[in-house]
Probable L-tyrosine/L-aspartate decarboxylase
Amino acid sequence: MGRVIEELKRFRELDIKYSEGRIFGSMCSSIHPLAKEIVSLFLETNLGDPGLFKGTKLLEEKAVKLLGEILKNKEPYGFIVSGGTEGNLLAMRVVKKMKGRTIILPKTAHFSFEKAKEMMDLNLVYAPLTKGYEIDVRFVKDYVEDYKVDGIVGIAGTTEFGTIDNIEKLSEIAKENDIYLHVDAAFGGFVIPFLPKEYRRKEINYTFDFSLNVDSITIDPHKMLLCPIPAGGIIFKNSSYKRYLEVDAPYLTETKQATILGTRPGFGAACTYGLLRYFGEEGLKKLVKEVMDRTFYFKERLEREGFKLLLEPILNIIAIEDENHIETCKKLKEMGYYPSVCFNAKALRIVVMPHIREEHIDNFIEVLKEVKRD
Ligand SMILES: Cc1ncc(COP(=O)(O)O)c(C=O)c1O
């Protein structure tokens, strides 16, 4: 056994670790120590066959209930899935069966919707963005008046910029026109509800939850809740959506199945419940305040060095204007630093996750200065 582990360790050494402070472009982070213990307890569980793992299934239901509380939904129906991609795919399955195949979504939408398009033969209509990189709701309103639209997707915390689409306006349009509304809060779901007052701006509408006319929301524990991968969340308004998702699974302990994965891990659900219980609202507020404080430390340091941000950070995501963003990103990687790039603007993209400390920010800025000096 020792020999195998030694061999595996040599491969693991090739990976970059979050703790080294060089990963600046990921929406995942070091997992919480409590999660490590929970994983080992639930490692053998399979939520694909929940009749065998009744305790784990109960934990998934409890996790969904707590996610419902965050999202202001008293009767949530949903699952802890493999990530934001699966959450979005499940929502798109429902839209297609319930309403039809034409979906309008912002240009900032995550590429998981392109996978949904291919798999389900969807017709995706990309709405342009406003100057503030939000979906242009005027365009959406005009479009639904002129054409048949079955679903709208709004993003609460875009992957690129951390911007928040005006979900309230989208929900009004959806209601008036009997259109399905899905909100992708894969990242923002664990940030927006916990943002401290000092980081909330008057001009931004932060409401994205079920207090509005929303059908489903993606919210991922393996991003800002610090759960191990895979742990995504998909929450529907209520259990009436079940009939669009379930297929017969005659040889299992429960004869219906809704998720895309069949055999699926139970530790994601256990960790989601465990960490939500551990953090509580106060703990999550503290975590979000810490990353927001660091985001603004980063912003001030960058501006002092003459770099310009594309927009004032809304969440813990920074976009640095750069005409040669792809080239800069490549050079930074050669020097051992890993931000990423925006694709709807010429900008470097940085996600200030909990593993990024002030000293890592200082180091990054020195390397960025060097790269830009060349
Ligand atoms: C807004 C948004 N939705 C969906 C996803 C996809 O999530 P995953 O990579 O967990 O499938 C991401 C990932 O970054 C995201 O930012």
User: Anything to note?
Assistant: The chain has a mean pLDDT of 97. Residues 267-304 form the longest helix (38 residues). The first strand starts at residue 77 and ends at 81. The radius of gyration is 21 Å.
